[in-house]
Specification:
Number of helices: 13
CATH class of one domain: Mainly Beta
Distance between the termini: 85 Å
Bound molecules: iron/sulfur cluster
CATH superfamily of one domain: Immunoglobulins
CATH topology of one domain: Immunoglobulin-like
Largest sheet: 5 strands, antiparallel
Length: 420
């Protein structure tokens, strides 16, 4: 682990990662990187607009994300909690804002410090809660639609009510609950107990030379309020490494190394990248399996999906003016954000013609349309009851071509034709 650099602190690394996560939290729904649009039943993943009917890809995406978290927990323990979790990032930010306000207001109004700083803090958290709730709900409702509901103070629709409830919960969370959420409500800490083992990354205290001076700075800086010296397996520990920095800094004054480290498992191994045992190899292989499946499914995905089926509910065929007609139905789903059109043509059915209008069929972005058409072929030349042929569909402007095998039905003799 990179602790040899004298200027390096885990605290500064965490702050940089927290800033990155905050920007990502704001950007992900607005750039459609990850968003589940409930009203429109669409799942957005890295720019792909997946329809709810594309269950296979959504399943692979969720499994991939789940195994990413499993792999991270097996290898690195609770670093997700300490470095990436929005709950922890905003809890720490609210504590920093509260103490900053206390210091600033205490200088100017020492007598009313507590009352004024508390009121100012609640005002700041209230404004931040509206903003954070807006971003959070943008993961589930289109942001422009949500903004309209917010500006019209909509408290009647499900979107408006959810916005008000999430704002209230966010306010209570970051003004009162904060890290208590991690040890009471959040199931991830308990899950970590199942996923971690003797080789998982831990924050470890070791003092073989009895160098601890009992300054308790490691306890004072701990955002979870625990003493890491008691055990590296405390469920409250989020592996944030604030205690490592604190001990390094205190003992550096005595020209001694710190007593707390990141370590691989119970043995306290501080070097390398951990052991690659059978369990970890299996987890990595499963993660690779879902990553490959997801990549393949996205690469093969058609933005415009065309489905064609014969319509033989009322009649197998009809005959008119010396030609046999078969009726077909189609459905076109444009699952992209751009307008498209689909050109229909025929293959391997000599003398046949397609009666459909319009052709190409225009489809708006996100639209699903149904239609029908007829194919006719000269009656006299048809000797078979069933002719196999293909309908070719070409999507414009992507120029993606699909071939749909189909059958054309006709009477077998001219006498039958005349009888119709
Ligand atoms: S900061 Fe280090 S020296 Fe101080 S009490 Fe904690 S472990 Fe001991
Ligand atoms: S014990 Fe150390 S690593 Fe664990 S939560 Fe407290 S400060 Fe963070």
């Amino acid at each position: 682990m990179p602790t040899s650099d004298a200027t390096f602190t885990w605290h500064h690394l965490r702050r940089r990662i927290h800033l990155f996560c905050f920007v990502a939290f704001l950007a992900l729904p607005f750039l459609n990187v990850v968003r589940f649009d409930i009203p429109r039943q669409r799942f957005y993943f890295f720019g792909f607009e997946l329809w709810i009917s594309e269950f296979g890809i959504i399943f692979l995406t969720l499994m991939f994300l789940m195994f990413l978290i499993v792999a991270s927990s097996v290898f690195y323990g609770r670093v997700f909690c300490g470095y990436l979790c929005p709950q922890m990032i905003f809890s720490e930010a609210s504590m920093a804002v509260e103490s900053w306000l206390q210091r600033r207001i205490g200088k100017k109004f020492p007598k009313q410090r507590d009352r004024l700083s508390r009121a100012a803090f609640f005002l700041v958290v209230a404004a931040a809660s509206v903003f954070l709730a807006f971003v959070f709900i943008s993961y589930f409702v289109e942001p422009r639609d949500l903004f309209r509901r917010l500006t019209s103070l909509d408290l009647k629709t499900a979107g408006g009510i959810s916005g008000a409830v999430v704002t209230l919960v966010t306010f209570l969370d970051f003004s009162l609950v904060r890290q208590r959420f991690c040890t009471t409500v959040c199931p991830y800490g308990y899950l970590q107990g199942l996923l971690g083992d003797g080789n998982t990354l831990l924050v470890h205290y070791r003092d073989p030379g009895h160098d601890c001076i009992e300054c308790k700075k490691c306890v004072r800086v701990c955002p979870m309020g625990i003493d890491i010296r008691k055990s590296p397996f405390q469920i409250e520990c989020i592996h944030c490494a604030e205690c490592i920095d604190a001990c390094d800094e205190i003992l550096a004054r005595l020209k001694k190394p710190g007593l707390i480290h990141y370590a691989w498992g119970e043995q306290g191994q501080t070097r390398g990248w951990g052991r690659l045992d059978t369990k970890r190899i299996v987890v990595l292989l499963v993660l690779l399996f879902y990553a490959a499946g997801l990549f393949t499914a996205l690469a093969m995905r058609r933005a415009v999906l065309v489905r064609i089926s014969p319509d033989r509910a009322n009649a197998l065929y009809r005959v008119a003016d010396g030609r046999v007609y078969n009726h077909f139905r189609y459905n076109i789903a444009n699952r992209s954000s751009k307008p498209a059109a689909v050109v229909f043509s025929l293959q391997q059915l000599p003398g046949a013609s397609l009666a459909m209008a319009p052709n190409p069929v225009p489809v708006k972005p996100g639209a699903s349309i149904d239609g029908d058409f007829e194919i006719s072929a000269p009656a006299a030349r048809r000797a078979d009851l069933v002719s196999h042929f293909s309908i070719l569909t070409t999507t414009v402007p992507d120029q993606v071509t699909d071939t749909t095998p189909m059958t054309f039905l006709a009477p077998t003799s001219s006498s039958t034709l005349e009888g119709k």
